[in-house]
Design brief:
The protein has about 450 residues and is mostly helical. It contains 20 helices and eight strands. Among the domains are: about 5-100, no CATH class; about 130-175, no CATH class; about 285-400, no CATH class; about 415-460, no CATH class. The protein is flat and about 75 Å long.
């Protein structure tokens, strides 16, 4: 969220807005383990949506524009309170209720969900409540890829309620060891598709493509390994090891070296530095903004193109590569994106002295004539508003964050429910991702037990 001050027809995005909003509404779902996206008040900075426009008359009226960041921060709470009872988008729900429920007061398509059930009776299931039989059948389909037989259903129904719940946990663990879940192109690999973004024509190794540049099976293998057993999901961004896959049955194990992965271990940081990530997302780029944005989106669930996860850094963007990113239409996003990208500056993509390798003087050797100040690109940067010295530290900060925990659970929630958590599902969702982060220490298998016991998963 970047609210606005307006002066003589010019609009300027205000970096303090998200923090001020969360100080004003600390229990809003927009602020639970995250910060609001700019789309709360904007179509795209600096263009306001109807909710953002409704705030403008109440932002320090009569004061000269543009407001300083300090004056804006002082004025925003009163402006927010002034429009609480209004309905900016005309969807029949007040701005305050939408902010409290985690829906967008500037989008009539985004409205709070009701938990009221009017589905009537059903002879098969306890409709609108968690039903053990429904949960078991759904679990088998989602995790094992099969349906129970009639005889198995009758045996299940004969169990006590407590025995049914214990049986669900046993079945889940059994399914998580099947080929349907673990195998190549199985459920875990499907979860990884948006993160890896495979391109068959560029694939090396098994199923080699026409231009075999890198083997993304390694990326799938590391992702799968971090999601199973008692393994730490954070290592998808921090691993100093590689993972090999064996078949019949599928199994994943670590190895300190791998011929398909040239990155030295000192600079390795999980899938952020895999050969495929660097070849595909860095390629021939001096400042790898695309690589940084993809890692932010894939593993933290924050899409800068949708104005999510913007933590503006003072003095940025500096436009070292002379791409024009200091222009008003670009600066709001690049004040976050460029510092996010700096730690990638020495990670090479294709050619230039070492494909998919760390080259300490990569910019100086390959791009020194691209722009006058390009060699001044630092390796230190920022992620989630926190300074980091290099990409290894980037991965450590990112993987320990609320954003990472939320993103992991959101991935599974969407995969298993078919949609992101709705407003009425948010309480269970928040409990689930918090437990994943704290009591489960980022172990996915333990989190999945929690997830299948939620009403959101088990209610027909």
């Amino acid at each position: 969220m970047l609210a606005l001050a307006v002066a003589a027809g010019a609009s300027w995005a205000r970096p303090p807005a998200a923090g001020v909003f969360c100080a004003t509404y600390p229990t809003s779902p927009f602020c639970v383990g995250q910060q609001p996206a700019c789309t709360l008040c904007h179509v795209a900075p600096p263009q306001r949506n109807v909710f953002g426009a409704s705030l403008e008359p109440h932002l320090a009226p009569g004061e000269p524009r543009p407001l300083s960041d300090g004056d804006f921060a002082m004025a925003l709470p009163a402006a927010l309170h002034a429009v609480e009872q209004a309905d900016a988008d005309g969807d029949g729900v007040s701005n305050l209720v939408e902010l409290q429920q985690g829906t967008l007061p500037g989008d009539p398509r985004s409205i709070p969900q009701t938990s009221t059930c009017a589905a009537g009776t059903n002879p098969q299931y306890d409709v609108c409540h968690r039903d053990a039989k429904y949960t078991w059948k759904k679990l088998l389909l989602d995790f094992c890829g099969v349906s129970p037989t009639w005889a198995q259903v009758q045996t299940f129904l004969s169990l006590s309620d407590a025995a049914k719940q214990a049986f669900l946990d046993t079945e889940l663990d059994r399914c998580l060891s099947t080929e349907f879940w673990l195998g190549k192109n199985g459920q875990l690999w499907r979860l990884a598709h948006p993160k890896v973004r495979p391109i068959g024509s560029l694939k090396a190794g098994e199923d080699e493509g026409q231009i075999p540049l890198a083997d993304y099976d390694d990326d799938y293998a590391l992702f799968a390994y971090t999601q199973i057993g008692d393994h730490d999901a954070r290592e998808v961004l921090t691993a100093k090891y590689f993972v090999q896959r064996t078949t019949n049955p599928t199994a994943y194990s670590t190895t300190p070296l791998k011929a398909s992965q040239p990155m030295d271990l000192a600079h390795r940081s999980g899938n952020m530095t895999s050969a495929w990530t660097l070849v595909d997302f860095v390629m021939f780029t001096a400042l790898p903004r695309n690589a940084a944005a993809q890692m932010y989106r894939a593993y933290l669930g924050l899409d800068i193109a949708k104005q999510e996860g913007l933590y503006a850094v003072a003095g940025e963007p500096r436009d070292y590569d002379a791409k024009g990113v200091t222009q008003q239409q670009c600066a709001a996003c690049h004040a976050t994106l460029d510092p996010l990208s700096y730690p990638f500056r020495n990670y090479n993509g294709i050619g230039g002295g070492g494909t998919a390798q760390y080259l300490p003087n990569r910019i100086e050797q390959g791009f020194s004539t691209l722009a006058p100040n390009i060699t001044q690109i630092p390796e230190a940067g920022y992620v989630l508003g926190q300074p980091v010295a290099n990409l290894v530290e980037w991965g450590q900060v990112a993987s320990n964050s609320d954003a990472f925990a939320r993103a992991v659970v959101t991935d599974y929630w969407k995969f298993l429910m078919g949609h992101p958590p709705t407003s009425d599902e948010l309480p269970e969702f928040n409990v689930t991702w918090r437990a994943f982060q704290t009591s489960h220490a980022f172990r996915v298998q333990k989190m999945l037990h929690d997830l299948v016991h939620t009403e959101a998963y088990g209610a027909p």
